TrEMBL record:
InterPro entries linked: DNA-bd_dom_put_sf, HTH_17, PBP_domain, SinI_DNA-bd
Domain named PBP: residues: 100-290
Designated name of the protein: PBP domain
Provenance organism: Syntrophomonas zehnderi OL-4
GO molecular function per UniProt: DNA binding
Residue stretches making up the Helix-turn-helix domain: 8-56
């Protein structure tokens, strides 16, 4: 039962919905829960929580841009009041599709996406504010992905790393590549205007690791300090002429007109979760989804992803 006082704190809402406080803030930010401020404090009305429970969580279809006739959509589950919810951090479309499948799986649950980069996602996992984190962090010393970073950023907590897909990272350039940009060495050309990703995301780590290998001072790159928070935004900046090139995944190049993609490095995009959670029904549902033909077929239809190892546990740390 909810208390008679109609004003609830984010902590109280988190306890009612059996989710993390971080998820409550994300729901408010996305407009899923109306809220108001008293000074610096956020308050949420009891009636709005009740309305949210009645309506169920909004479909992720709008986020992914996908559409499906209503008669072909799988039936959405009606969750009990205390149904569990998983917070999944990461920025790839794969995670949006995973969330949608999770919400219709017989053993699934509500799924809440937190659009955080690889470092931020691992930190949320470490602090207990997230259940899973999608990451793509390259270690140039060992030429491997993710494992060294998980050991450093989530110390003392046994984790499982599950492979999602191989992706291609490369440069976005204008159609026809008029400036003849070919590879990492072009970062040193002072006349070229670069646009960067924010610190802590996998793409920024990839860039900085290559700069370290090349012994190239990052401050000498024209535009290194100019940052954007998504692959699509960077590709769009290049298409508009605000930058000459940028580093990102191939998917965004397919989505933005006037962009050509120069492949540079294949990367592993993987999912990290606490090992102690793996036996729980909702996490077993995730494993079943990743192994399913329906999930893989949907990803294959999007292009850019190599799915040979999807769903495979590649490491335990």
């Amino acid at each position: 039962m909810m208390r008679e006082d109609s004003s609830l704190t984010p902590e109280e809402v988190a306890n009612i919905l059996k989710i993390s406080k971080l998820t409550v803030y994300e729901m408010v930010k996305r407009g899923e829960l109306p809220a108001y401020r008293i000074g610096r404090k956020i308050r949420i009305e009891q009636k709005d929580i009740e309305a949210y429970i009645r309506q169920g969580k909004k479909s992720n279809m709008a986020e992914t841009g996908a559409t499906m006739p209503s008669d072909l959509q799988p039936p959405r589950q009606e969750y009990p009041f205390n149904a569990p919810g998983l917070v999944i951090c990461g920025q790839d479309l794969i995670l949006d599709i995973l969330c949608r499948h999770l919400e219709t799986h017989p053993q699934g649950c509500r799924a809440f996406r937190h659009n955080a980069g690889s470092f931020a996602g691992l930190l949320q996992l470490y602090h207990g504010n997230a259940d899973m984190a999608g990451i793509h962090l390259w270690d140039s010393d060992k030429d491997i992905y993710n494992i060294p970073y998980v050991r450093r950023i989530v110390p003392g907590i046994p984790t499982v790393i599950i492979h999602l897909a191989m992706r291609q990272q490369g440069f976005y350039v204008s159609q026809g590549n008029p400036l003849d940009i070919k590879g990492w060495e072009d970062l040193a050309r002072p006349e070229l205007r670069f646009i960067n990703r924010e610190p802590g995301c996998g793409t920024r780590v990839l860039l900085d690791e290559h700069l370290y290998q090349m012994k190239l001072n990052r401050h000498e790159i024209n535009g290194y300090e100019k940052e954007s928070t998504s692959h699509q935004a960077m590709a769009s900046a290049v298409a508009r002429g605000d930058a000459d090139f940028a580093l990102g995944n191939e998917k965004a190049a397919m989505m933005v007109r006037g962009i050509e993609f120069i492949p540079l490095q294949k990367e592993r995009y993987e999912l990290v979760l606490r090992k102690e959670d793996l036996h729980k029904p909702e996490f077993q549902a995730v494993m079943e989804i990743l192994a399913s033909t329906a999930f893989r077929s949907e990803l294959a239809g999007l292009g850019d992803y190599v799915l040979d190892e999807t769903g495979k546990i590649v490491a335990e740390t």
